[in-house]
Write a structure and sequence with these properties.
This protein is an alpha/beta fold. 53% of the residues lie in helices and 11% in strands. Strands 3-2-1-6-7-8 form a six-stranded parallel sheet, sandwiched between helices. A two-stranded antiparallel ribbon has the order 4-5. The protein binds adenosine-5'-triphosphate (ATP) and magnesium ion.
Length: 261
């Protein structure tokens, strides 16, 4: 596909890059979104391109938080729509209380419509945030627009690949912020109550499986929430990355950089 030989050791990564470049040409994502994607790839490379225990724990806790929430919302930007519209739709159908809101850092009406179209084709029935009318306190300019029936009134927000300022504004407005971000050092990951340090698609698939398995186990939700310290999991992600780099620097044969895929 895209003229990339399937035998290339980084075939899937190159395929995804070509897909993202195409999405930029269509106007779904902006050039800055490509840079953000590259930063994510670099962190995933160091993590080892798989879900680690600190992420798995955060993903299960995210499911418990979303199940307990009165008004949970997932915020969707261009990169999220390009990478994981199907996974967003699946999660929204497993958890009918979850509202889906378009939330763009670089907002134009046309882009908001494109993101909404992509979500609709993936199966999301109701989409908020296409014509937002209110602003979140503490955020100037276009970045502060939110939907009055969505993020404005949400008690729990799932913000994949969010900007740090916005993550901070959401947290300081008293909402419980669950972030998905491969960079444990980002302001978003540090501001979030529950940072999931994992790749977006892997994370959403696991949050969805946990929602399904926890749905009928209401008594377990509060215990999971109470025994999860999001910032401790973020520190574990950093420790994992540091340890892995040290093992690689020693030339450990058990610990190789990402293999052919
Ligand atoms: P902050 O403002 O939070 O400090 P930032 O400057 O690091 O953020 P942003 O552009 O705000 O970056 O957000 C992009 C973030 O999303 C990056 O930290 C990047 O690591 C992460 N990211 C990119 N692609 C993915 C992905 N597929 N899955 C998870 N995280 C990703
Ligand atoms: Mg960020």
């Amino acid at each position: 596909m895209y003229g990339i030989p399937a035998s290339h050791p980084r075939y899937r990564s190159l395929l995804l890059r070509a897909h993202m470049a195409e999405e930029m040409e269509r106007g779904l994502i902006v050039p800055e979104g490509l840079i953000a994607h590259g930063r994510g790839e670099a962190f995933d490379y160091i993590i080892g391109e798989k879900t680690m225990p600190f992420a798995a724990k955060a993903e299960r806790a995210a499911a418990a938080h979303l199940l307990l929430a009165k008004c949970p919302v997932i915020s969707v930007n261009g990169n999220v729509a390009a990478l994981a519209s199907k996974e967003v739709a699946t999660l929204a159908s497993s958890l009918p209380s979850l509202k889906v809101e378009v939330n763009l850092f670089h907002r134009t009406p046309a882009r908001a419509e494109l993101v909404a179209d992509r979500l609709r084709s993936a199966g999301v029935r109701e989409i908020l945030g296409v014509h937002p009318t209110v602003r979140l306190r503490g955020l100037p300019s276009d970045r502060g627009w939110v939907d009055q029936n969505g993020i404005l009134v949400a008690d729990t927000v799932l913000v994949p690949l969010e900007d740090g300022d916005r993550a901070k504004a959401l947290a300081s407005s008293g909402k419980f912020v669950i972030a998905v971000d491969l960079n444990p050092l980002s302001r978003t990951a540090r501001a979030a109550d529950l940072p999931i340090i994992d790749e977006l698609k892997r994370a959403l698939v696991r949050v969805n499986s946990s929602v399904i398995s926890l749905k009928r186990r209401r008594s377990a939700w509060a215990r999971i929430v109470e025994t999860t310290d999001g910032q401790e999991l973020r520190r574990q992600a950093l420790a994992h990355m540091a340890d892995r780099l040290k093992r690689l620097a020693r030339g450990s044969s058990q610990e190789q950089p990402p293999r052919a895929r």
